[in-house]
């Protein structure tokens, strides 16, 4: 005999009372520059998917890569400063 199980956990996992906590929202807000820089890098790479990258495209990708790296470094340094350590 097979047991029939409900999908109650899957349905209530995203209920209205499961809102993000203020700490989770603060973490997302702190990571937003990194997220936006990664989106910019993805956009630059997507533009070159269907064609051979020109020099302008290559510069756009390099610039976006540098911004993404700088955003990550800034996030790590902020996190280290808040934790009281050195990065």
Describe this structure in words.
With 87 residues, this protein is mainly alpha-helical. It has 3 helices and no strands. It has helices at 8-12, 22-47, 55-83. The longest helix has 29 residues, at 55-83. The N and C termini lie far apart (58 Å). The mean pLDDT is 86.
Q: Using only CA atoms, what is the Rg?
A: 21 Å
Quote the distance from N terminus to C terminus: 58 Å
Report the structural category: mainly alpha
Please outline the major beta sheet.
none
Beta-strand residue percentage: under 5%
Q: What is the string of helix and strand elements?
A: HHH
Shape: flat
Q: Mean pLDDT, as a whole number?
A: 86
Compute the number of strand runs.
Answer: 0
Q: Quick summary of this structure?
A:
The chain is mainly α and 87 residues long. It has three helices and no strands. The protein has helices at 8-12, 22-47, 55-83.
Question: Can you tag this structure with a few keywords?
Answer:
mainly alpha; 3 helices; 87 residues
Could you outline the blueprint of secondary structure elements for this entry?
Blueprint: H1 8-12, H2 22-47, H3 55-83
């Amino acid at each position: 005999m097979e047991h029939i199980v409900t999908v109650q956990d899957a349905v209530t996992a995203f209920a209205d009372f499961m809102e993000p906590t203020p700490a989770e929202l603060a973490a997302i807000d702190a990571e937003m520059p990194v997220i936006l820089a990664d989106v910019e890098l993805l956009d630059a790479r997507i533009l070159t998917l269907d064609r051979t990258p020109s020099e302008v495209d290559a510069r756009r990708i390099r610039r976006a890569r540098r911004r993404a790296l700088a955003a990550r470094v800034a996030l790590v340094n902020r996190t280290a400063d808040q934790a009281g350590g050195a990065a």
